[in-house]
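Thread: Modeling a multi-component assembly for a lab meeting

Hi all, long-time lurker, first post. My supervisor asked me to bring a structural picture of a complex we are working on to next week's group meeting, and I have zero experience with this. I have the sequence lines for every component (891 residues in total). Could someone generate the structure of the whole assembly? Inputs are pasted exactly as I received them:
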Amino acid sequence: MKFKSDPTLVDFVRTEVAPEGLSFKPLHENRVAVRIKAEDADKLAERFISKFKARLIHETAVDLEGEGFDMIYIYDFSKVRERLVVVLEAQISKDDPSPPSVAKITWQASWAEREIHDLLGISPKGTPDPRKQFLPYEWPNAAESGTAPPRPDKGPSGPQEKWIPLGIMPNDAYATLIPIGPYHPGVIEGQTVYVKVEGETVVSADIKTGFHHRGIQKLIERRGYHKGVFAAERVCGICSAAHGLTYVTACENLYEAEVPDRALYIRTLLLELNRVHSHLLWIGVVADVIGWKTGFHLSWGLRERVMDIIESITGNRVNYGIWRIGGMSRDVSKELAERALPTVKALKAEMAQLLPAVAAHSVVKSRLVGVGPLSYADAFDGGAVGPVARASNWKIDVRADNPPHAMYDPKVISWEVITDDDCDTFGRTLVRVKELLVSSDIIVQCLEHLARTTGEVRIEPKVIPVNSEGIGLNEAPRGELVHYVRASEFNMNLPQAYRIRTPSYRNNALIPKMLVGSNLADVPVVMGSTDQCLACTDRFEVIRESGGPSHSMSWAELVALGKRRGV
Amino acid sequence: MADLAFTIISIALIIPISLFLGVIYAFLLRKFNARFQWRVGPVVRMYSDLAPVIGSTRVWQPMYDILKLFGKDTLIPASAHKRLFTWSPYFSLFFSFAAVLFIPFPGMPLLSDAPYSLIVASYLLIASILFTILGPVASGSPWGAIGARREVELFLVAELGFVASLFLVAFMKGSLVIAELSGTVGSIPMVLVTLLAGITMFAAMLGKLHIKPFDMPEAECEIVAGPYTEYSGKLLGTYFLAKIFVLYNMVALFIAVFLPPVSSSVLWLPLYVVAALVLVFLLAVVQVLNPRYAIRKALTWYLKIVVPLVILGFIAAFALRMVA
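Re: Modeling a multi-component assembly
Sure thing. I ran the full set together rather than chain by chain. Output:
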């Protein structure tokens, strides 16, 4: 299948969408890059959102070294024209890096603006939340000092509230600041959610991220396009298929891409298997958080069987390593597809029983209904994505709006976008359980097609042109995932910039909004309901007592240790 | 004199018996849980390759866990009220163990024929739980404080059901001596009211033993380890040992008061064992089927379900006494 673009779109963008643009560059597949003056960014944002109902996908910046910074705003116009994505680019100087803030118009840019201030020192004018995003709030002061240095343009960013220890005779313990994290049994991820509780009711909440910086974006910028796919998969251990597919979509977007049909089916198959295992994992986690260990074990038991299918197809359980620019590295044989089909069908029948287990269990419902409310308006303005947005009755799904390089053509594969109007954790659970069934339908259709047909799965990769830009959009299990790649102007094999915006980046920002007013017992449920992404490591250091030498365990030693059962 | 000697011997015997049975009950709870959840749980017969290394069975796993804790360092946080923090686990253990002496075992009435033994036993059990609240409050940890707060809220309603069900039977049979309650069966209407009280007692046991959906004081996803957050080593082991005795006490008290005359004679011992197994199995089933309630929901559940049932029982018991 060849991915073509609509040549009339540049004129449409030039005349109607952004007449202020300085220059217009058609990219591949209905993406248009527009170079603007930095001062126009907020004006354009306002028009895009109010007039065209466009949606800001991501705001980021690229360091051009001697020439300043390039601000990049990616907008989704798929409601106006099919698959149209507009990339606004504005160059700013390093002497006064303060473009107008977009976050004051659409709050969802808030985290992005905090991030670019942290990492590049760009401080957007009039941004509503000038606190640090990834650095400690107090930086460069010591974290224990409790005070942040004032920012010249915004005034003080406010001291972080201190945890009040509750002794046997608390003086002012009517409100307690409870730090949930960085490590907490409820949500096993390095992040801190500060909740201030009166009794057990949350009166205010704040989320602080930035506990594991792994440098994957920089790694991809240094390793070249074809090696980058393996680094991209390792962004997340759960939705690795989504990251792999998004990466190859972004790179294929740099040139007039062609991918064999069979490869598209395999990509869809893997992505949906990945979604099924991710959603089953999520159901297990939420069951655990509400104390339903049985639900946890049942859903993880089902998940194991999905993992077995994935392993039989790719040879791996977590990072599949079969994504390639221009196709896939492995075929799914007829025998394999026929063997997997009855398993998937049986699995679907068992997963269908999860729905009544969740929807009819009175104690489960008492823990989920009305917990973590998020109205449609809040979800829209806050930029919720994925099941969180769909549970707020917002029909947003990248697979339908702006599909990745996989087979989601409604003429070929029948599937539907699930939404729910409960606007709470119960709705998010229902959406995910129903999506399990839709995904297994898609898997069955893909397997049937793969068993029926044969064909190539990969074509020779073309030379990736210099000076191009690619945007990979994909619906990860947690929501819209974006990879933005800008090819280098000089080097044929290295991107100049690579940016990843994960769905949790958006949904986590909404957690404080959902938390206020809820019960302390519901805090982990609300945090879990957005299905936060985890980051993991796979090695450890053995440190001998009494100052002896330390050494890292090798893979062989780890395996040997794991095999020594019970000792 | 012979009576006194017999009592002393039976008190000496009940120490290992109650510990043994408590550990067995805790093991069975874990095993039933595991089997319902597609897990293996603590194995009864160890795999042959591991048996030479770690022993032939893991039935004593709950005890091993406690013994392990006794070998660990005990940390006392600087912010804690030291005396209260340190002594609470021991008091909790003492009271839960003291309650053992007032509850009859088949063939061993122990001190259950002492006057007001029902009141003494229930007070001792309540005191034991009281010290699982006081210690954590003294620890200075917000998690401990919130866990203790939840324990207090749950304690108020679960204890209400516990005491009311016990005294419903006592009121009906006109006695506050456990030995008398466990010896007399009564008429068929009396058995029916006892059954009703048994149901409310079972609901109260769920709260007292922290069986889901009433395990919110120990909800580790929400409040880390709840009351036990700052406890470690010997002090934590002491708390866990107290819990073993509380588990034994609750089962034994249930059988003594609500299933007469099972506890009254050594001949009933097989039935006692069956009754205990069924009770533990039912606790495990409830544990497996339910997620955890939020604390407020748990309170309303007790007030809406257990309290009306108890009131109904009291009306029936009053009517029975009027007729008699």
